[in-house]
Write a structure and sequence with these properties.
Length: 428
């Protein structure tokens, strides 16, 4: 392959062994490059963000790991259910047949899912796993990157021709040579824990992710295998600022205020402590540069309402690998070579962000939870929420999506004319 040189330890160093890093490493190695994955934590390790979208399935198949995922015993998921406590509106969106992906996916224990992907990557010829190993420093030059790695044997320097930042919310490169830009209005706070013995639903609805909206924020309810449930509460910042007690006490208080959650937890027991995450919606810049690209949460993290995190990590990992392999073939590694990658990432992420920003508008929720399938609007919405925006959206579905948001705009205008438009919760 043109551009592959021998005076470096590796062609590519991937910082981070989560879904984005493991995906990128697998595809890079299959393209003939030598790859090292530096993951600072020992696996398995706890991670939240357990719900996949259907478009993850083709990526898992291309990785060659789909059968292992299917056979592991994860909880199948066929749709998503939303419930708004204030209006009592509820609607279930089911994943549809006839798409470029299956009509189901999985809710996963991330500790196990991530370990499967990293083990799979490490089995590829040409992949070296450094774990646990922390990348302390990086310095770029015209020929690549020199990194300082720390592990059980001490510190050492490695040379790589290219670096992929898949470090997640740590945003390794942005914290050292870039910047992290908060998404306006989405600086919420999340509290979450695992429970055993929580309510389960019968049949195909057992694995539905359930979103319970109440005045102070919203809960995610993700049924997992082995009778475990991931429960998280995303709160408006003003609620957290006004709280005087501990995060655990705040979490319990919110459970009491959200009727469906309180009822569903009757007789259940917590099996983890309450974890917190704050100010978690951001983008970073630069996304790419001479001799590096960022993937997954190291590029952006969005509000988890539509379960996009793992998909964005894997989709960007595959996309980054494609661009890096092209760069090695061409022997071109300048920043402008990777502008196409940045455009593609943001184009794929944009529809999720659009839905998230509208989601905090009570008027949008009224329309979203009473969908009418005129002009194929429901078909278009489910296509986007299944991860379809990383593909070319068919014209029929683009028109349906446009019709959906046109209804939102028209209804909002009409309500404002009558003085009835409610306040958006985005800035709360």
């Amino acid at each position: 392959m043109a551009g592959v040189m021998t005076d470096a330890d590796y062609n590519v160093l991937v910082v981070g062994g989560g879904p984005g890093g493991a995906t990128a490493a697998t595809f890079l190695a299959r393209g003939g490059l030598s790859v090292a994955i530096a993951e600072r934590e020992a696996f398995p390790r706890f991670r939240v963000g357990e719900s996949l979208v259907p478009n993850c399935m083709p990526i898992l198949e291309r990785l060659g790991v789909l059968d292992r995922i299917k056979g592991h015993g994860f909880q199948p998921k066929f749709g998503v259910t939303f419930h708004d406590q204030e209006t009592a509106l509820e609607h279930s969106f089911s994943f549809r047949e006839g798409r470029p992906w299956p009509s189901f996916t999985f809710d996963v224990h991330r500790a196990e899912f991530d370990a499967i992907l990293l083990d799979h990557a490490a089995r590829e010829p040409g992949v070296t796993r450094l774990q646990p190993a922390t990348v302390e420093k990086v310095a770029f030059d015209a020929e690549g990157a020199t990194v300082r790695v720390s592990d059980a044997d001490g510190e050492r320097e490695l040379r790589a021709r290219f670096l992929v930042d898949a470090s997640g919310r740590d945003a390794f490169l942005a914290s050292r040579q870039g910047r992290r830009r908060p998404m306006p209005g989405l600086g919420k706070v999340a509290l979450f824990a695992y429970y055993r013995g929580a309510r389960r639903w019968p049949g195909r609805e057992e694995g539905n992710v359930r979103i319970y909206i109440f005045p102070e924020g919203w809960f995610w309810w993700i049924p997992l295998a082995r009778d475990e449930t991931s429960l998280g509460c995303v709160l408006h910042s003003r609620v957290v600022r006004g709280w005087q007690g501990t995060p655990a006490a705040l979490f319990q208080a919110m459970i009491e205020r959200c009727h469906r959650v309180r009822e569903g937890l009757a007789g259940a027991e917590a099996v983890t402590p309450v974890h917190t995450a704050a100010n978690f919606a951001y983008t970073v810049e630069p996304v790419g540069g001479s001799r590096f690209l960022c993937v997954g949460d190291a590029v952006a993290f969005v509000d988890p309402i539509f379960s996009a995190g793992v998909f964005l990590a894997m989709a960007s990992g595959e996309l980054a690998a494609r661009e890096i392999l092209g760069a090695f073939r061409e022997g071109r590694f300048e920043a402008r070579r990777f502008a196409r990658y940045e455009r593609a990432f943001h184009r794929g992420m944009k529809p999720f962000v659009r839905f998230i920003e509208h989601y905090y508008d009570p008027l949008f929720l009224e329309i979203f939870l009473k969908p009418k399938d005129a002009f194929g609007m429901v078909d278009a919405v489910t296509f986007v929420l299944a991860g379809g925006a990383f593909r070319r959206i068919p014209l029929r579905l683009r028109l349906g999506l446009g019709a959906f948001f046109a209804v939102v705009r028209t209804t909002r205008w009409a309500r404002r004319r009558r003085g009835l438009s409610p306040e958006s919760r985005l800035e709360w």
